[in-house]
Structures are given as structure tokens and as C-alpha cells.
């Protein structure tokens, strides 16, 4: 009845409600839009009020019209979205930018954050679309791309301009470069003597478009022809919409056939003389905005200037033109240019270009007259200076990379190239220096070096850098006859937090621990991260070799690590196990010291964790035994050495066996029967707990089905699930498959989970618990009362049973405090309509108190210890147990 009630109340909520709880309201506050789709049917379930603002349709129509969401997408973008919806998987997130068309015909560009989630209770897959209007950004990006396109063309053309031997090669080169930088076509036209324009500089594939194309200078007097307009007005003429011009002119038809949709015509004039036009075509409509036109105007002007230079016959005019070109190149150069006197020793600066001012922060007035090495500041101990000084002395070219300093004192790296300038008498009169600021490249090199030697998450030295530092520390200790301590730190229970709360929480925890470790040691010490949850400390001259003092140091470090920390509102105390190896007693090389520290660390873990151990030779044998036991455990699965024992669970009111808890044992061929406390921890660390857990679940279900076939119809089997098993992505499917394979009714299986594993990541684990519950399986919280359950969350869990931990049951008949705690747990469970079972019942007095408090069931040695399946049969013969 309780379950039916819960299901009935839950059904009133929308099936996709879990997609709205986290951020539905926030989405409406920042201009974004939210809509949710049922993936299998491509049906819109929900749309926020922002739909009308962005799409121009009411949210009611958006939900009611099942095809409207797709019709809003521009036809060219629909397939991209359809493909994504076909391939998206549960849990996957994607970002997609699409163009939409509003009812008024205006386009907008929307960036969607798309995430697919599953409702495990219904089997529905839901896709959440969070859309942001990026139309403005899209237009800005287009404008920026166009400006960059023009800037690339201008930059690339400078080399052509500087090397063209004649008009033909100049114009051909300019057109080739402009076409190569992102425009569909560029051609130049020079005005002939008959007033027509003849194309020059076209590419071979567009030859037929421009063949025999001649436009009379006076044509198109009404301004309809862009070339004639540009020539007449001496201003750039733009034709941005070929498709909208319905005139059947040959040039327009040809342009449309070749995919040209926009055109810019730039007049090339030298003072009062019109030399020709420069034509640039683009494949997109409305391709040329004012900024791009202005940039290309400067290019056309630059080309016109060079054309005039080529036409000047006089040597003086040619020389002046060449000088202007060089001056322009220097002024526009991205590199800093310095001209200095060749007179030693100061080599006084006589000229700097604007790039110098921009790079150094010094104005030309501040730099001119200074010693040419003033940018060095006091940093004169640089290898590159030797080459520069030699070049100055020998009057030759020189090149070096130097550290220079700006006016504000900040460092920049200067790739410097100097060259001598000779006069008519061949004597060196000046030096020209070209400076390139290569600081970003140097910073990138530094970043690469750091990435190769430091852990990306914590910034600590990684294994590679640790080995280098440890080697240096050993050499230092050997020379000075000092001791050296190598401490290996492994966090206890980190895998539990990482697996249950996710890698983001685990990464946050590791950063906190790394900060604590660094703050607890000296600057001369090294803290490194090996990977995972392992850290290494290298402590030279630690306590001068005094073991007692060193232990105090290590205890202080441990105390810093185990301070409480808060993750997602919950407080945790994370222990750590530390192993210490000392140079030279425990090894004289990095590998040996690291290996021995590792052995000592595992001894600390074997002793219960949250402690430290100094290495001793005896530990080596223990470590070998541990490795051997791990190997044997792997083999135990293959050799069928694992077995299950079962402990009855008894109903206190009727004295009957109502369930069994399955408990694993290892039947070791040499060591005999091994209890789980000796190997489950190792199985958790190595990941063997996953195949072992599946084996336990399948074996227990098979045995329970066998007992049911013998007449024990409603007998329930309880199986413990570890925290690591609980977060498997295919857990629900695995349980369902085993139930189907064994034939055990789902209600006869009870999954036991520890309180701490359930509470680690509540929202995520709620989904898992509901998915398991949907199979019909019972859920139990084990060791209840030992963790940190919140009653607010507990009532949300779809659990059936609370299991009172044996630590409360032990003294229940002796101490009133324990009895009160147990009574409270029983009352809490009953108020939540849960069954309550007490474990660890060993005496009649304990049983009597529990029965008096209304406990439903109990298990423990008072009734029976865990027994093999064949010995359980005898207990069934006497179903009526005296309680």
C-alpha cells in the first residue's frame, strides 16, 4: 500500500520534472530559453516563456504544434540537429549553434546547450534544450572575420608590393594574394587609352568570366554599374546583393553562375590621376561592411601608389617612391625598428618606429639619444649579448634572443636582428635593428616545460620532476652526511568519495590536500603527486636524523591532512596512511627509497589506516605476502574458491525465519576459510570487488531460488553492495539480468547499502535507488546510525528496511543511552513505514530489550552464526524459534 501511494503521488508530477528543478527559474532571468523534448517521439513537453521572445511563437503553440520546433530551424541547419538527436546518448551533452527563422522572416542565431537524460521509471529519454540568442555575437564574429580577412590580405600584399618587378607582376601578385586570403576573386583593371577597362591579374579558372570584358568609362552614368560609379565618384562602390538585381546584364548572370553574390570596386588613383580599379568578389551576400571597405581602400591606395612608382621614369622620382615604400613598411611593421649610430661605445639611437613605442612603452622622444642597450636595464649577464657585441665590433649582421624590459619594468623577450648600413664610401655609418616580441612563444615554452614536469590538477611536481629532485636531494645528503626522509602519503577512503560523489568532487578534494601538504612543510622540502590519491614528500635534513623528532614532524603533517573538509555541504574527515623511508638506512637511490616507503605505507593501511609507519626490513616480507594474496584472490575467482555463508533473519513476533543475509568467505587451499575482513579491503582497492560482487549476487539468488523451490516461498535473500558497485553505470541492468537468469522474484531480493555510500551524492544516488526500486527489489540501509544521515533526505529514499548497527546493540541491555538510541531508530523507521532489523544479537537480554521496543526482525549469533547453505537446511526443520 505504501509503495502504491508513493507511486500515485509521484505520477502527478511531470515525467520530466527532474530536468527543471536545478535551473529552470534561472534560465528565465538571463534571457535564455528552455524547452524539453521527449526524444523517442520528438515531441515538445515543456517550453519556457522565453520561447515567444526568441522564436516569435507562444509557448503554448510551441508545445502543441509538434512540428513547429523543427520548422523554426533554418532548412540548411535542420539535418545537423536531426543527426544529433538520432545519435545522442543518455548523459551526453552537446553545444550546437543553429540559425532560426522568425515568423516575420528575420533570422536569428541561437546557441543550444543540449543534454539527454533518462527517466528510468518510465523508460523515456528527455532532451533539454537551453538556448541563448547569439545573433549579435554572430554578427560581430562575421565583422571580425571580415576585418581579419582584409588585414590578412593587406599584410600578405606588402611582400608582393615590395618585390613586384613591373605592373603586370604587381597586379597579378596582389590579386593572387587577395584571392588566397578568403575572397572568391580579385582582379585589377587599368584604364586604357580608349577609355575602357581591361582586366589584369585574374586566375585561370575565372578566365572565361572576364574574357573580353570591357566597360566604357562613361557607361552606367546613372550609377547602376559599380565600376563606372567608382570611376566617376572616385569612391569605393559596393554591390552587396547580386541576387536582388533583376537586370539581365551579362556580368550579373556570369557572376551568379560562378557563385559571386557581393562585389567591391575600389578606385586606384594617384593624386589627380585615375589609374584603374581594384575589384574584389565574395561568395556571401552583404559581404562588405564599412570597416572592411576602409581596410581594402587602404590596400587599393597602396597599390595605386606602387603603380605610380612603376610608371615614374625619372630616377629621382623612382628613388623617392622606393624610399616612401620603405618608410611605410617600417612605420606599419609589426616589428620594432631601431636605427642607431655606428659610433662606439654608445651606438646612440637616432630613430624608432611606432612598433617600438608599442612594444617597449617608450615614446620616440624618450628613446632617441639613449644608449642602444638601455632596454637591458641591469640584466647584462646574457649569453646572447656576446653575439650582438661581436657583430657591432666587426660591423656585420648579428642575431640573438635577449631579455629586455619595458618602461613599466615588465620583462619581454626580444628576438633581435642587427645589420650594418654603409655610406657611399663603404664605411658603416649606422646599424638597423629589427626587434620581435616573442614573449608569448617563450611563455608557451615555459608552459610546456611546466606541463611536462608538474601535475595538471594540483600544480605539484609530477613523478618525472620528483625523481630529479629526489636524486639531487640524495646527492646533497651524501655530500653533507645528512639524513633524508621520503614520505609516501595515500588518502584513506578517497576512492569511495571519488566514486560516489564524482570526479569533480574528488579533484576538489585533491587540491585541498595538496595545499595542506605544502603549507605543512618547509620551502626547501618537495611535495609531489604521483597520481590518483598518492603524494610524496621529500624532506632533507628532517630533524637531523632524530627518529622521535621526525615522527613529530610527520604527525604534524598528518594532522594537517585529516582536518575536516566540506564537500557539497557535507563535512568529511579524510584519513591518510603514510609510509616513511630514510636515507641512507633504507636505501641510497630513488627507486629503493620509493619502494620501501610504499611498503611502509601499505603496512599503515593494513593496521587500519590513518597512521604512519617507518620502513623496516620485516615489512618487505609482509609486502610480498600481500602481493601474493592479491594474486591468489584474482585466481580464487577463476578457481571457484569463493563461497557464501548465510545468517538467518528472524521475525520477532512469530519466531520464524523470514530472510537470509549472504556473507562471502574465501576457502583458501592453504590458509583455510578466510573471512571478508581479510580480503574485501584489498578487493575494493584493486577493483576485484566488481566481479566478486556480481558472483555473490548471482550465487545468492540461485540459492534463494533453490530454497523457494523446496517450499520456502517468501524467503528473502539480503546481499551487501559496496560503494564502488553502487556507482556502476550498468548496476540496474546487472541486477535485472541476474533476477531473470535465476528466476528469483524481485521482491525476494534485498540490496543492502551502507549509510555513508547512500549519503555521499544524494541527488545522483536517488536516481540509482529509484531505478533499482522500479525492478521490485527491496532496499535496506545497513549500519544505520553510524554515519551522518539527514532525516530530510532519508524520507526521500525509496528504502524498505533500516538495519541497526551492532555497535548499538552490543550494550543495549547494559546502558540506557544505547537502548534510547535503538528505540529512537525503531520509532523513526516505523514512522517512515519501514521494517527495522537489528544485527549482532548475541544474548537473550539483548533480544528481550529489542522485542520490548518493537523491533521487527533481528539476526546474530544468538540464533545462528553464518552457515554454509547445506547446514541451513536443519534450521528450516524447526521454523518456530523461541523468542
Automatic annotation (TrEMBL):
It catalyses: 3',3'-c-di-GMP + H2O = 5'-phosphoguanylyl(3'->5')guanosine + H(+). Residues 94-146, 396-450 form the PAC domain. GO terms for biological process: cellular response to nitric oxide. Coiled coil: none annotated. Residues 482-617 form the GGDEF domain. One of its GO terms (molecular function) is cyclic-guanylate-specific phosphodiesterase activity. InterPro entries: Biofilm_reg_signaling (IPR052155), Diguanyl_cyclase/Pdiesterase (IPR012226), EAL_dom (IPR001633), EAL_sf (IPR035919), GAF (IPR003018), GAF-like_dom_sf (IPR029016), GGDEF_dom (IPR000160), Nucleotide_cyclase (IPR029787). This is EAL domain-containing protein. The lineage of its organism: Bacteria, Pseudomonadati, Pseudomonadota, Betaproteobacteria, Burkholderiales.
